[in-house]
């Protein structure tokens, strides 16, 4: 779950995988498109993001440039899409170049009302979701220039439809979006030397088809590898006013027919993963199931041949007794992460200390347990929780996860002032942890780094580094918020370097997901827009 929590009307507001916050008129989040980027840039690039505090309070650069230590490429995921967590398996791993820390160049680009969140594919084009400031809903999808974020073309949702934050795009330019009112939209982005256009190809009205419960809100949808579409209803329990106590999981065939299954006293609070035609979905407790020592459920669904998708397997996990301090989800706070073709991982919400859980992707023989292994999140007996998806990587027979402890992360509340204490991430328990699943099925913690990081990191196999955004904790405790892009060695867990990007609340990453572009540019979404970081001329 990439997330952020925003105080609004005495409650937190956000989305599990695409966090948005309105400052003025619109929020832009970006996902990569397929095909060659050929359209001319005619729109005016946005201005830089203003610092709202003095950035010179913190060091410009800490550490030393790294030498690239490449890792084997990540396993190929099918379907091949660009999404919030990088790919259909939510791995947040990129095989392309990324900054090593040499003569780093930092550029900021202001959003018209908030963050710009890039999800690059290898060809580098980008497609943006724009947020309506008046009601915190996404109202337009735009093609943007990957360097300047200037808008090239837009598609606006029909009147009365409020788009959800999740969007996926295939290499052929097909874009998948959904509305809270129950519509699934398939768009097509087309780029030529003359222009870029985004057109509506399909509008599937699930609400009119009667497949959704009236109390439910369509939450997200994802392509499968055979032309079908998975969808779920739901909401983030700690970040919305939703009252539904059921979840609908459904699959849409290429002809538009929908098969659904209704899950009572459960709610989807996260994104989900897809491998080939199988959807991996995690739910938290709701309704009568929401009590002390509650259980959530992890599922694998197949399309099925009848009226309902087929439950390939399901297993309960510990959802504890309540949403934890700073948390958004009543159950697991993590979007499922696929580890190659063997495992799928989430975190639970066990009281006091959460756990990292690793399951088999395929159904266990004889109806046995799907759980392969588990390990506590964080150091021994520490309070821990996780509201982010994990990095997932497989090489040489070893599956690895990188997880964060986001316990007690502050509720984002700019209404108290852009430089208010909601920026103080030093109050988080913090910690980043690498866990390996050994060939014999044991979960082993390889390292812990004490970094206090709310945002969702990403990894480059070309550099062997994990990248994320964090505030200087010592300065933050004193009320000065200087923000850095940090690079952590995947092998050792040591922080290699930190580069200052800006200061004040406009540079708060608000739980957004780092993206890595085709040319080695790192994109760090922040409240005021997006920051790009790349190696300078000395590297080239």
Structural summary, described in words:
The chain is mainly beta and 540 residues long. It has a single domain, classed as YVTN repeat-like/Quinoprotein amine dehydrogenase (Methylamine Dehydrogenase, Chain H). The chain is 2% helix and 40% strand. It is built from two helices and 38 strands. A six-stranded mixed β-sheet has the order 4-35-34-33-32-6. The radius of gyration is 21 Å and the shape is globular. The relative contact order is 0.18. The N terminus is likely disordered.
Topology:
Elements: E1 6-8, E2 11-13, E3 26-32, E4 61-63, E5 81-82, E6 93-94, E7 105-110, E8 126-132, E9 137-144, E10 151-156, E11 168-170, E12 174-178, E13 183-191, E14 196-205, H1 206-209, E15 218-223, E16 229-233, E17 246-252, E18 258-264, E19 266-268, E20 273-275, E21 278-285, E22 294-302, E23 310-320, E24 337-339, E25 343-347, E26 355-360, E27 371-376, E28 391-395, E29 398-404, E30 432-437, E31 443-449, E32 458-460, E33 465-471, H2 473-477, E34 482-489, E35 495-503, E36 515-516, E37 522-526, E38 529-534
Parallel strand pairs: 6-32
Antiparallel strand pairs: 1-2, 3-8, 4-35, 5-11, 7-38, 8-9, 9-10, 11-12, 12-13, 13-14, 15-16, 16-17, 17-18, 19-21, 20-21, 21-22, 22-23, 24-25, 25-26, 26-27, 28-29, 29-30, 30-31, 32-33, 33-34, 34-35, 36-37, 37-38
Keywords: Signal
Region (Disordered): 63-91
Signal peptide: 1-38
């Amino acid at each position: 779950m990439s997330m952020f929590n925003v105080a609004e009307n005495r409650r937190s507001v956000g989305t599990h995988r695409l966090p948005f916050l309105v400052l003025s008129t619109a929020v832009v989040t970006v996902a990569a498109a397929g095909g060659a980027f050929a359209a001319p840039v005619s729109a005016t690039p946005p201005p830089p993001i203003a610092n709202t505090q003095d950035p010179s309070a913190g060091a410009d650069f800490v550490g030393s440039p790294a030498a690239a230590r490449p890792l084997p490429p990540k396993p190929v995921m099918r379907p091949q899409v660009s999404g919030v967590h990088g790919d259909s398996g939510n791995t947040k791993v990129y095989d392309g170049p990324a900054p090593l820390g040499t003569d780093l160049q930092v550029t900021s680009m202001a959003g018209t009302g908030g963050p710009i969140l890039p999800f690059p594919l290898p060809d580098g084009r980008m497609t943006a979701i724009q947020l309506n400031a008046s009601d915190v809903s996404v109202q337009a999808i735009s093609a943007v220039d990957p360097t300047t974020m200037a808008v090239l073309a837009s598609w606006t949702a029909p009147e009365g439809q409020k788009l959800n934050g999740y969007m996926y795009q295939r290499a052929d330019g097909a874009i998948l979006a959904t509305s809270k009112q129950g519509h699934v939209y398939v768009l097509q982005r087309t780029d030529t030397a003359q222009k870029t256009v985004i057109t509506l190809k399909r509008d599937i009205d699930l609400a009119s088809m009667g497949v959704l419960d009236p109390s439910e809100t369509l939450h997200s949808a994802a392509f499968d590898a055979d032309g079908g579409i998975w969808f779920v209803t739901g909401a983030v329990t700690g970040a919305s006013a939703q009252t539904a106590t059921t979840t609908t999981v459904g699959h849409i065939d290429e002809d538009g027919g929908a098969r659904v299954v209704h899950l009572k006293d459960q709610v989807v609070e996260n994104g989900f993963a897809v491998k080939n035609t199988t959807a991996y979905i995690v739910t938290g407790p709701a309704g009568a199931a929401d009590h002390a020592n509650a259980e959530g459920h992890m599922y694998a669904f197949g399309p099925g041949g009848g009226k309902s998708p087929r439950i390939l397997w399901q297993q309960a996990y510990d959802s504890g007794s309540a949403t934890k301090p700073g948390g958004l989800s009543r159950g697991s706070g993590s979007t499922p992460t696929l580890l190659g073709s063997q495992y799928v991982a989430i975190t639970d919400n066990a009281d006091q200390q959460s756990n990292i859980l690793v399951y088999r992707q395929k159904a266990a023989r004889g109806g046995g347990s799907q759980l392969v292994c588990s390990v506590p999140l964080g150091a021994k007996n520490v309070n821990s929780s996780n509201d982010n998806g994990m990095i997932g990587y497989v090489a040489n027979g070893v599956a690895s996860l990188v997880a964060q402890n986001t316990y007690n992360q502050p509720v984002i509340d700019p209404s108290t002032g852009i430089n208010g204490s909601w920026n103080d991430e030093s109050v988080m328990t913090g910690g980043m942890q690498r866990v390996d699943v050994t060939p014999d099925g044991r979960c082993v913690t390889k390292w812990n780094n004490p970094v206090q990081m709310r945002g969702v990191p990403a990894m480059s196999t070309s550099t062997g580094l994990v990248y994320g955004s964090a505030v200087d904790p010592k300065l933050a405790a004193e009320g000065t918020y200087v923000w850095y892009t940090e690079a952590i060695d995947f092998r050792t867990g040591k922080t290699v370097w930190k580069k200052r990007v800006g200061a004040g609340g406009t540079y708060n990453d608000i739980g957004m997901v780092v993206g890595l572009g085709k040319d080695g540019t790192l994109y760090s979404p922040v409240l005021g827009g997006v920051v790009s970081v790349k190696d300078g001329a000395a590297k080239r």
